[in-house]
Amino acid sequence: MTVVLAAGLAVALAGSPAPNPDGAPHAPRSQLVIDLRRSIGPERPATSSLRAAALVSLFAASPEVLPASGGDVHLLAVVAPGAACAIAAPRGVAAATRCAGGLWRHRVRVPASSAGRLLRLVLYVRRGSRRFHEAVVVRQLGSGRSATGRGSAGPRGGRPADVAPRVSAEPVATATTAGAVATFSAAASGTPAPSVQWQVSADSGRQFVTLVGAGSRTLRITTSTSEDGMLVRAVFVNSAGMATSRAVRLSVRRRGGAGSSARPPGATLRVPAAARPTTIASTSSTAPPSTTTQPSTTTQPSTTTQPSTTAPSTTAPSTTTPAPPSTSTVAPVTTSIPTTSTTTVPTTTVPTTTVVSSAPQVTEDPTGYSTVSTGQAVFSAAADGDPAPSVYWEVSSDGGGSWSALAGATATSYTFSATSSENGWLFRAVFSNSQGSAATTPAALTVAASSTNWSGQAISDGKTYAAVTADWTVPAVSCDQTTTYSSLWTGIDGYGSSTVEQDGTEQDCFGGQPYYGAWYEMYGDSAVNSGYEVALNPADFPVLAGDLMQASVAYSAGDWTLTIADESSGWSYSPAPIAWSSPARSSAEWVGERPEICSSSCALSALSDFGTAGFSGATATAASSSPVPPSDLAPAVLDMVSSSGSSLVLAAASPLGSGGGSFTDSWRAAS
Predict the structure, then answer these.
(1) Residues 6+ apart with CB under 8 A from 670
(2) What percent of the chain has pLDDT over 70?
(3) pTM to 2 decimal places
């Protein structure tokens, strides 16, 4: 993706994208943003010698937000003389189908039936062989008809003017235990009745994230300890304005309350040797053990067997507190036994406690670790045993065929600086004591390669690839007032080759508002939108945070088939098969990406805060083979860094999980 900033507006560079400065894989996509108007659209293809401003200097819409009742949107465009242009609008919105070069104005009528939608209006421009298009987006409030504010109440039945929301009941701070349901409620007045949307903040209110589907006056959250300290607020909106409640705190404590021995989810319970059940051995052989249940004042466990019934119990000397009557069938203690001292009881009849030694038993295995090249790696492990076991770490560079001890690595955690030459090495801890030894399950070190615009998994192993697939859930982006971009996609080529065949979703921020959409691209194929992204109209193919997406790219006999589907919204899109035999098909990818922004020079954009995105169901199909998970093909892990050689990670991919077809991509920083 490449964007040009000109005259205070953000527009896309018309032409070939600038190469990535460090030579890392680069799959440019397209997006237009007019920053001052929260407007978006795909990149405009043209030749590298022509800047976007040569065809379109300005495309803007006013107002940005319409009431639910609809209204007029005024479009303004400055188009190069001699160019032909056209306007495309969603179904139900009347727009001009043709326009001419120069300064151009047009009014678009938006009906009430479009309420609650994001309306994408696209300007297409053509002059000779050069083509260009950009878009603006208008938000329409509400979910039904509402007044425009021109009416007045009266005997003729007119309706009152709209009144902006006003919070009438604030939410209240809530404290609960992990796993319980926390409840927040809020209310607001207004005409028409305002809708409500709940938001949360995990950074003390600097950024709030909208909770998808939380659209009622009462919010219920099943809590975990990770949500302790989270702020919650309600936002009320109607056609006349917006009101925000105060932000209140959610406090979540572990089950059992403060000081409880309950451990956090996922923690490993380590039982100290002194706390484990012990085996009791009696040295008395004068009589069978008693089955009495008299209380004991000694430090023996309650399962201690009693000495012979012919002697008083040493656990309740009569010089202190007389023993209670026995409820067993054993004969009572005789009076001929002195009651002033317990020294008459032979010491050989007192039970003794013997702690049985045990060999080490592993309680925590190290896990696979991924790190940017030359970054720090940490492995940790734990084990129980009596006596307490010592530990040392071993490494294998041949897949576990042989192991070597690491000098000085004798703590339960091993920290070191990893290099790319150690990628794939196995590490394990060995615990030993006088009773034996135990080794942990080996963990593989994954040393991620660095890229300035990609994070994810990529395969380039000399094979020719025919298909890739992947599923992911669209992450909710956290937006401030800056413009940021992110995309998730699967594709073929681009990791060491000059073309990319891909489809995916974008998660961007414009003017403090999130935007989600779907797209496909045959980068480098001039026959498909001049080789740039084709964005799907969000009115017909809506994408929301939390939607489950499925995407695939396949090649067969010279034709490409790209399919993207939103399982949550119930739509699927696939363009007609695309004939293109030029791509090398030399790599397969599952990637999170950020685009380029160009003004007088080009630079990669700020990365939208998408939290953590999870890929699953990933497969790749080499020519004449069956689909396999990426783990069968030894992919490279890519971490996105701020610049070539930088250690500042913007997004990091995890190693492949169970099954070899899933991993996560996590946001770390914007730029």
Answers:
(1) 482, 484, 606, 607, 608, 609, 650
(2) 67
(3) 0.50
